[in-house]
Write a structure and sequence with these properties.
144 residues
Length: 144
């Protein structure tokens, strides 16, 4: 069959006609985001349900981080151009959040009686929260 008439493989497209985002390094990215979803959801649910009055801002920010991670994971798995753009936008927002909250926790530690996922630029999570959105944006730009 001539090259131009070959049907794209499952690896090349998603069910929605767009490029798959979870091939190669994208699969690792989805896996790491999935782990971060579990960690952030677990942490925020526990803290909000047991000691919300102690640090409502910190625990709410951890819940926001969990939602961002979940949306990016979903977008990467879904694939397609719309999902790629949405994930890219969320990765940029995630990076902005990590940088703002990270700087805020260093400048005014009294504002955060307890840590968030993004505190100290994600130090409690081995700095993955600051590395992950950069990696995600690079991957998503390459898949354009």
């Amino acid at each position: 069959m001539p090259e131009s008439t070959k049907a794209p493989t499952a690896q090349q497209t998603s069910g929605r006609g767009g490029k798959r985002l979870v091939s190669g390094p994208g699969l690792v990215l989805v896996w790491v985001y999935g782990v971060m979803v579990v960690g952030a959801v677990s942490r925020s649910l526990y803290q909000i349900s047991t000691e919300f009055d102690r640090a409502p801002l910190a625990y709410s920010l951890s819940a926001v981080a969990a939602l961002v991670y979940a949306f990016i994971t979903y977008s990467l798995v879904r694939g397609g151009e719309k999902a790629r753009r949405a994930a890219l936008f969320c990765c940029a927002g995630e990076l902005a959040g990590v940088l703002v909250v990270g700087a805020w926790t260093l400048a005014r530690p009294s504002a955060f009686p307890d840590a968030t996922v993004w505190s100290d630029f994600g130090m409690g999570y081995l700095f993955i929260p600051v590395i992950l959105p950069i990696t995600g944006m690079l991957w998503l730009r390459a898949k354009r």
